[in-house]
TrEMBL record:
The keyword Manganese does not apply. Residues 36-182 form the Peptidase M16 N-terminal domain. This is Insulinase family protein. It holds the Pfam family Peptidase_M16_C. Coiled coil: none annotated. One of its GO terms (molecular function) is metal ion binding. It comes from Polaribacter haliotis.
Amino acid sequence: MKKSILTLASALLVAFSASAQKVEFEEYDLSNGMHVILHQDNSAPIVTVGVMYHVGSKDEETGKTGMAHFYEHLLFTGTKNIERATWREIQSNRGASGNANTNWDRTYYYQTLPSNELKLALWMESERLLHPIIDQKAIDTQNEVVKEEKRQRLDNAPYGKIIYGDIYKHIFDKHNYGRPLIGFIEDLDGASLEEFQDFYKKWYMPNNAVLVITGDFEKGDTKKLVEQYFAPIPSRTKPNVVKITEPKRTTEKRVKEYDSNIQLPIIGLAYVTPSMKERDAKVLDVISTVLSNGKSSRLYKKMVDDKKNALQAFSFARALEDYSVYLVAAMHTGKLPVNDLIKDMDEEILKIQTELISDEDLQKVRNQFENTFVSSNDNVEDIAASLATNYMLVGDTNRINKELEIINSITKEEIREVAKKYLGKNSRVVIEYLPASQKK
């Protein structure tokens, strides 16, 4: 009886949290095709303005890689009406902060500032779209910035190729997700000013963007400002995007990747998994949590605590628009044969594929996702990014309010079947990530 009462209490807590955390929003389109999402929250005098463009590194042409990430930097140079190199100074002087980030599917620019500066943020973002400085001086300056970023994050950062997806070249045989997110530096060095300008004209248009505003504002006034600053920007014909189909892997592939910045090797099992739009992607998130989220997870307990043949065990899914990537991995001392480590990981994967997880494990997973859900919706900056992502890449803005519902509806049987479907030995790439000193 006590167990039933606790189960009921847990269910009520989840229901209460989901209700309390519901994100209210309004969305509509401008006449030029720009999508607008408004989430009003007047609890604190701050506001976030974000603009996400549906272009990432997967959209680049062969021989012209790196453009998407390059623009993340280039569009902070200045505009026709914002003096060169003063963008961040203007923000700082008004108590604002801002940044941008790029992945394989989209590029996102955002700024958070006192709510009485909303007009400034909208003007600056409209300027970024309408009148950016794209000249040789800006390109030469940002080229050095990008090279330094590559040195810091990839060339000189321990395990940087895993963190920033450079190992995806081994996982994707055909899809552009296999290209470096940052691009090939030789492509950027060889690109002409005209090619940089052409990339902007091809992708940066209001009808290929979503504008999101979250925080302390009044809808009526804000809609007028949005209309004033963004509606006059002309739309253009969007490029025809052809989805690249990644062939299904039917035999295991084994590769080695070397890193001069590490002392301890990692062995990883990598899989191509479904788009972030699909329910199975969420099921794989649950599987990842069971396998390796925290010291009580299965891989950690087995490989780190019990056998002590690994210093760390982890798995994660990187959710992307066309496909996702799922990695199960262990950091080890290099003293144990690789196949023994793989055997340990395979045993735990097999259990997920053949046995139903316990009620306790399922409830623990739900609790962990609830905590993540609550923390991800506790500030307007994170809510802005989530709303934009769900609209643009998932195709459902209200997915922000469905996450817990989806997680709580996943069954033990479903977990078993999804593990069988995607985590087969013949569909994976085994990656040995090794210190460069071991390279023969």
